[in-house]
Known about the structure:
The model has no long low-confidence stretch (mean pLDDT about 90). The protein has helices at about 210-220, 250-270, and strands spanning about 5-10, 15-25, 30, 40-45, 55-65, 70-75, 80, 90-95, 100-105, 110, 115-125, 130-140, 150-160, 170-180, 195-205, 225-235, 235-245. It has one domain (about 5-270). It is mainly beta and about 280 residues long.
Amino acid sequence: MRGRLELGIVMRGARSIASRQFHEGALRVLRPHYLDDSGQVCYVVVNPGGAYLGADLFVLDVEVGDGADLLLTTQSATKVYRTPGSFAEQRMTVRLGEEARLELVPDQLIAYREASYRQRTCVTMRPSSCLVMAEVVTPGWSPDGANFRYEEVRLRNEIQVHSGGGEPELLALDNLLIRPPAGDVTGLGFMEGFSHLGSLIVVDSRVEQALADELHWLTGTCEALTGISLTQTVAGTTGLVLRALSNSTEELNSLLTGCANLLRERWYGQGPLNLRKH
């Protein structure tokens, strides 16, 4: 294992604070920030090692208590270099309490030549919880100038809803696998000529078809091919999955941030995301 991070967030007065924090190896968080007066706390995950390599394992455990609000991001892009012998892996476990909220908006994932990466995120939430997760996957630079020389990127998200009593119910199992054939995934029927992929997952009791239609209209202003679908409804809460294809990291970041900003303003009265990393 290269790194482990545990973070517990609870509500104290009008602010969310860390009640539990532990790290070892090549993972840690910067000091908390409060970007507005909503009480939402922002933590930035840092990998001092700079990149993921073969056989690396990074484990994250995040718990957001009842009524607490966490914005979790990264300091920079997640870079996966050559992984000879075995893939690099990240495992993340998330637990959300009643009326808890998590916005997970990391910088892009960049897979370089001969890289193989697997990421598994398991979320258990309550019917009153709110979850927003964004992800952008981009190809890394190759010495011959060609894109998609990585071997595999697999992103698996498992989301369960616990309504109290008994076992949690599975809301969605989102399994995204990019395995470039002969180093090229841009062909018809795979990435439709595009090189970058963006994904947004929203789970909340306020998710409905009208919201999906509005987000789809919003994405029409971006240079990307997008699609949105709804999950089943479990214990009164529903998920929304947005996929977007583009040739630009900036375009996808703008698209996903725009959708997240709409939800922030409408549901919580917050201003647009401004993480001020650069």
